[in-house]
């Protein structure tokens, strides 16, 4: 299947699913029917050509399959008499509405973050269960159970295919899911690869969809800018053998200027509109990094100031840890170590390899090579990412 056809099907997947759920309800069964229609298109269109109305073709095929599935289910439950009562719940209001409602449905508060991510990738991203399982390095059977349970949970809540009344509150969950999808692709937490480009690209694609559908939401714009500015550094983050290259040592000529320009323009236009939220502040910090010609020329005092504002809005321990690094770079390792001591007992940080890695970096900056080596080895023992382990052990060996 060509890349153009694959992109078309992924773009149409949420539109077709939204149309079916809006018409018939039954999110769980409709999602299965859409997946089968997408597979049929992937098999038939390369040989027969793309139909004049690909969306209409998919809706027709998926609707037929949905009817078959519902009839089989009703027969199994001895309720054939209800088949005659199946009726559309109304025509779709529009592709944009359907995709947005679908995103909110996949991020239903009854679901765990892992289930929200899996369901979003399947329903909105158009990825197969096999692809999602491969991306997250889990057995396909495990991912199948996760998605099945997620669909059952949504069904049990009785959620209707409409924009939720708590849209503003649930938007935060939607943004978090998109960010987590991107972040798992950009900095994989497990496995032999530092990056899984397909997941990072899917996170950016979902963020672009959200920004197109909600252009006035400043935090949506902030998230998209953050992802663009972060992904711009991707080509320089790994060496020839897949090893991790820290930002200070990266060849900045490899950074992607188009993504930097787009991200900087987006956050520059968004910040004055207010109110300012965490994603906008993180994007502003990323913009400072990306616009700095060299690591030494980075405006660390400005980054410290932005982190201090960010800490007033969130209690995220990773933000606190990044603030420590910024303070050390702006004022020296002694100040950084003193600040690190004030947060190192946080339950969320205590067992995370990044805490030990930051301590190692600051000890190395201060000249304590023995302490730094011990901390690097401790950090390596805590991470499940093989490239991270190799990088941290190499730092320890160098000392």
From TrEMBL:
Gene3D superfamilies: 1.10.1740.10, Winged helix-like DNA-binding domain superfamily/Winged helix DNA-binding domain. Belongs to the sigma-70 factor family. ECF subfamily. The keyword Translocase does not apply. One of its GO terms (biological process) is DNA-templated transcription initiation. Residues 8-74 form the RNA polymerase sigma-70 region domain. This is RNA polymerase ECF family sigma subunit. Residues 104-152 form the RNA polymerase sigma factor 70 region 4 type domain. Residues 170-269 form the DUF6596 domain. InterPro entries: DUF6596, RNA_pol_sigma-70_dom, RNA_pol_sigma70_r2, RNA_pol_sigma70_r4_t2, RNA_pol_sigma_r2, RNA_pol_sigma_r3/r4-like, WH-like_DNA-bd_sf. NCBIfam families: sigma70-ECF.
């Amino acid at each position: 299947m060509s890349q153009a056809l694959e992109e078309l099907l992924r773009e149409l997947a949420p539109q077709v699913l939204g149309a079916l759920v809006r018409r018939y309800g039954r999110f769980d069964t409709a999602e299965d029917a859409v997946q089968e229609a997408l597979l049929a298109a992937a098999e038939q269109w390369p040989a027969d050509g793309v139909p004049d109305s690909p969306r209409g073709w998919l809706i027709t095929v998926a609707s037929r399959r949905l009817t078959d599935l519902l009839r089989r289910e009703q027969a199994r439950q001895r309720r054939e008499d209800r088949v005659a009562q199946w009726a559309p719940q109304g025509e779709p209001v529009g592709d944009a509405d359907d995709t947005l409602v679908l995103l909110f449905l996949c991020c239903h508060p009854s679901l765990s973050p892992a289930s929200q991510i899996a369901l979003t990738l399947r329903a909105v991203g158009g990825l197969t269960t096999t692809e999602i399982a491969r991306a997250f390095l889990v057995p396909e059977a495990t991912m199948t159970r996760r998605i099945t349970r997620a669909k059952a949970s949504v069904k049990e809540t009785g959620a209707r295919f409409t924009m939720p009344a708590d849209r503003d509150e649930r938007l935060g969950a939607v943004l978090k899911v998109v960010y987590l999808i991107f972040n798992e692709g950009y900095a994989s937490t497990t496995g032999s690869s530092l990056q899984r480009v397909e997941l990072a690209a899917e996170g950016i694609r979902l963020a672009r969809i959200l920004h197109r559908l909600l252009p006035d939401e400043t935090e949506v714009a902030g998230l998209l800018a953050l992802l663009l500015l972060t992904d711009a550094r991707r080509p320089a983050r790994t060496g020839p053998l897949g090893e991790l290259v820290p930002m200070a040592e990266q060849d900045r000529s490899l950074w992607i200027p188009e993504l930097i320009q787009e991200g900087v323009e987006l956050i520059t236009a968004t910040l004055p509109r207010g109110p300012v939220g965490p994603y906008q502040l993180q994007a502003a910090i990323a913009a400072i990094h990306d616009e700095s010609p060299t690591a030494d020329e980075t405006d660390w005092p400005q980054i410290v100031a932005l982190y201090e504002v960010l800490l007033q809005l969130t209690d995220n321990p990773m933000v606190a840890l990044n603030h420590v690094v910024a303070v050390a770079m702006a004022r020296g390792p002694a100040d950084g170590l003193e600040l690190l001591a004030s947060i190192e007992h946080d339950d969320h940080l205590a067992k995370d390899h990044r805490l030990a890695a930051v301590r190692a970096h600051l000890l190395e900056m201060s000249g304590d090579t023995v302490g730094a080596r011990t901390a690097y080895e401790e950090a390596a023992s805590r991470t499940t990412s093989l490239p991270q382990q190799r990088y941290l052990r190499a730092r320890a060996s160098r000392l």
